[in-house]
Amino acid sequence: MALDAGTVAAVDALAERYKYGFVTDIEQETAPKGLNEDIIRFISAKKAEPEWLLAWRLKAYRHWLEMRDPKWARVKHPPIDFQDAYYYAAPKTKEGPKSLDEVDPELLRTYEKLGIPLHEHEILAGVAVDAVFDSVSVATTFKKKLEEVGVIFCAISEAVQKHPELVRRYLGTVVPYSDNFYATLNSAVFTDGSFVYLPKGVRCPMELSTYFRINAAKTGQFERTLIIADAGAHVSYLEGCTAPMRDENQLHAAVVELVALDDAEIKYSTVQNWYPGDAEGRGGIYNFVTKRGACRGRHSKISWTQVETGSAITWKYPSCILQGEGSSGAFYSIAIVNNRQQADTGTKMLHIGRNTRSTIVSKGISAGRGQNTYRGLVRMQGGAENARNHTRCDSLLIGGACGAHTVPYIESKNPTARVEHEATTARIGEDQLFYCRQRGLDEEQAVSLIVNGFCKEVLQELPMEFAVEAQKLVALSLEGSVG
Amino acid sequence: MPSSAMRHERAMGLDLTPPGLSAERFLSEGEPLAGGPAWLAALRQQATLRLRVEGLPANDDEGWRQTPLAALKRFPLGGRAAAVATPASSLLRAEERAARLVFRNGALQPAAGDMAALPAGVTLASLAELWRAEPARLAGRLGRLSATEGLPFAQLNLSLAADGYALLIDDGVRLERPVEIVFAGDGEAAWHPRVLIALGRDSTAAVLECHVGRGAYLANGVSELLLAAGARLGYCRVQDEAPAALHLHAGMAELAGGARLDSVVLSLGGGLARNEWRVRLAGEGAEVRLDEVFALRGRQQGETISVIEHLAPHTGSAQVAKGVLDGHARKVFQGKIAVASGAAKAAGSQLNKTLLLSRTAEVASKPELEINCDDVQCSHGAAVGALDEDQLFYLRSRGVPLLQAQALLVDGFLDQVVETVALPTVAAALRARIAAWLAEREGNGT
Questions:
Q1: Closest chain A residue to B66 measured between Cα atoms?
Q2: B23 phi and psi angles, rounded to 5 deg
Q3: Rounded distance, CA A420 to CA A413, Å?
Q4: What residues does B255 pair with on adjacent strands?
Q5: What is the model's pLDDT at position B134?
Q6: How far apart are CA B254 and CA A227, in angstroms?
């Protein structure tokens, strides 16, 4: 997708730095501050959860108490006080809304400001949206139409009530409760998130989408998403995130689990635009997320596409466990850091089954005083006969004070498996800039054009609606980094 | 995500830091120190103290995640075995070398050496002799690089080193033929050989080190390479230790402006062999080439851990590590290129390629870039796979037996590194040793 004059103009029109930084004044219901077993019981009771889920949460919490937060990532932050945050915040409503008409108009206006008019989406766009506001799903559109073909798309708390057998069967099977520090914390305190189930052979008739919004101050957001594509099913899922501008850091520790059975395909796209903090590095979201997909069936397919422009710190490794014979995984990523943002992101491809395939394309862009790290693991297990991986990581540096780091781990235990990794690091070429300037683009436009070209391979992987937004976002995130 | 990778290693039983593997055990079983100047004693004391405080590595340390540390426990560390009089083989003919030194179990064998042909301005001597007789020539050089690096076994070496060699070249002196050094090990013992190579301005030298032996011993070496402006050093190490030996080596180099280091290691020996590199490109225009050829089989584990720091503008680095793994062999490669913020126009490249010849061989590779400067050109690549089926088929269809066909292809693959070695005599020595390794493989019919 080329960047034309219209897009440049559109980018120029977006004069403000972070336009999602407003706060919605809405009545909230919160649990007391801090984290202990009572808070977990409170969350579980609020959601009227079955006994097994509460037991699972408590098991996770007790395990978490024994864990240390990970230190290996190339990110720096002061220690997080886990007692100084609210673990449950929900917009006050009497009953859950039956349709969009019953949703608090203030909330609908918030989503409109975010560029996600839920009504409009329902009528025009043909994208089913689940909106999550401070850990609670407030609206899901297009439910009826999806139900007709048998697709379940709802808040996970609703799925626990309506489809407990499915949730119980799959929850925690890809990311176990003991997986890592932040995933374990999430298992203990997750409040909501999306649940998708596609029955055998169903091709989802529309894109599914979730918008996450952190609104309340001093809250952590811990959502949990679970997507199951049964044999032969196909789904494309989009995720977007924003948060208000605040001086303190807020923690977002989500878990996403994907399960693809025989011949199923899941395409998961993220445009992550949490508040990145100001130019001096004050405030911003700590985005510590565990995303993992299991290709359990033969010839199943999972692809992750991410555009990471927001957050003060990103710590995220969407991964694929390639178990089924002939299954394939893909990871397409653009990670941009500017000002004092830090990102340590990448993927894991674990090849277990025969003839498994994986592709990794990572584009990292560092500007300002940003620190950007690609960290990835490709492992060929002994049984990964004829497995293939190709990895390409490119880094672009803009300005002398930023950093770009590449840390790939490659492990192979099978001689018939082939792993290839290549990476480059460079800055924008003087000759490229000169060429663009010569044709009348100013420096910022020229950089934006070149950066979009650099990212093209990944942008192409995004669904249409997201690609346009992502392209603008790329330019916007780099604003002020030139000159 | 490494957290789970680490768990996996744990599950494989690799992080069994064995009870009794303490710095204390090494220190207490080491040699009493030979004499020397006060500054050396102070350096040694510092290293001992540091080792006591920081301890030996554990599998939690990123650089040691893949190392079977339990193996260290097997090695008898006390005392020095009696020197035996078996003649050390030589890779170079007498007329091909400038001089030769032979060490057995860490101790110099004066009778086996050959120092007649050294030109003026070149000092090649036992380090122990030098620090007793002319310590001033070592002051500020010996221990300069290793004292600041947190490598525990290099600290152990500094603390316990009894001997080694120094090669000191005066400004402008060119040593045309290579110096050959043989380190031979025999029996159950531990030694900590130390090497200091210091090249004056615009001087040139080449060194071929050969590590051989039999039995189960621990050779824990450190080489410090100091290159003044415009100096050029060719440094070739043939690591051909006994299959049961433990070979640890830390090479530390500092290059001033315009200096150039060409290093190549041929790694064939040792039950566990670990080769660490710390290279500082400190002066403008300094360049390093850090190559390795490895061929491992049986239950050998080979490790290469390197850090190349670009600290000045216009510095260049190139690293190629290529090798083959047979049997249950395992190779660990961790190479890092770090570019500091002031090192504009730095260029770095890194390539790690491994061929797996058996179903049970394993490789773990981690080529790493750490770039803090925008005006750079850096790249790295890694590839793991088996021999190309089509090429094998082509050879076999012309009547070449399988093992011989494999040997041909492996030889071609490895020769891409050997052919970059500047001195033809050294390149020929490497080729001969690789050919012998392949012939042994054919002979074993594995």
A1: A411
A2: -55, -35
A3: 14
A4: B227, B281
A5: 92
A6: 54
